[in-house]
Amino acid sequence: MILIVSNERDSASDLFVESLKKRDLSFQRLNTDVLMTDASFNIGVGVGSVNHLTQYGRDIDLNKIDSVWYRRPVLPKLKINSVVEKKFAERESLATMDALWVSLVDKFWVSSPYAIKDASSKFQQLLVAEELGFNIPETLITNDVDKVSEFFESCHGLMLYKSVTTGHLSSVSAKTQLMTYSRKIEATDLSKMVLVKNCPGMFQKYIEKEHEIRATVIGEKVFSAKIDSQKYPEKRVDWRKGRYIKEIFSVIEIPRSLEIMLVNFMRRFGLQFGAFDLIADKKGNFVFLECNPNGEWAWVEDCTKMPMTNALIDLLINKSC
């Protein structure tokens, strides 16, 4: 049986469930956002077989789980008014969720939450990528204003700012999600760099692009999509910026040697899934930017029709792909 660990609002999990139903496969979905409001669970040590969970009135025998898709868990909703008590309950909830994952440690994971955590550092990714032979952009993480200016000069005025983490900001309302985009820094921006004193940033040498590539690795299968970001001015620095344009995405074949490097990167971190962002520069070189170890993929399948959902299901069933 496949266990999907996600949340009620995740549309990718909805699509995945429909595919599982079409293939008549056994599964259960655990939405962690309602873990404390619409579920009850028991996990234990030395007290017999009590690894059991009930959600929405459905029983989930954790002992019958064969593989786990760790898709998009979130912090459980808590009906607690006291700020102090709520913070305590949140810590207890997170620790309890971790205990749930530990109780399933012998199952096949796509991917293990601990592997995902280890692979989430952008700086660590760059170190490993360079070691594996990838081209990487020169990178500086700093809160030193003078070093930002020095790095700008060393890049001959071609410098990019990006967040050290995901770049997502807290929503100002339930309907709004804020995020920071990668931004090309101009000389006139340097006077504003005093802000990094309190909020460090990642600065990279800006690379002129021919196009970009989103390479999604599932097991050892690589699904590569070309992103024609340079056709639209607002997308040249960060293709996510501006309106969604489906036509800029298409299937592309990348060198087998590059695919092997991507798979080796996955193995280094113990991942079964990874969404890689790469650049094809003006000279025909491929440049590693980062890997999202639990990134979005459904939009890639929608745009390119590559069979990624089935590859993911096959991986969870066969435990190799």
From TrEMBL:
Pfam families linked to this entry: ATPgraspMvdD
GO CC annotation terms, alphabetical: cytoplasm
Transmembrane segments: none
Gene3D superfamilies, per the entry: ATP-grasp fold, B domain (3.30.470.20)
Domain of life according to the entry: Bacteria
InterPro entries documented for this protein: MvdD-like_ATPgrasp
Signal peptide as annotated in the record: none
Gene Ontology terms, MF aspect: ribosomal S6-glutamic acid ligase activity
Stretches assigned to the MvdD-like pre-ATP grasp domain: 1-112
Annotated GO biological process: SOS response
PANTHER family xrefs: BETA-CITRYLGLUTAMATE SYNTHASE B-RELATED (PTHR21621:SF0), RIBOSOMAL PROTEIN S6 MODIFICATION PROTEIN (PTHR21621)
Name this polypeptide is given: MvdD-like pre-ATP grasp domain-containing protein
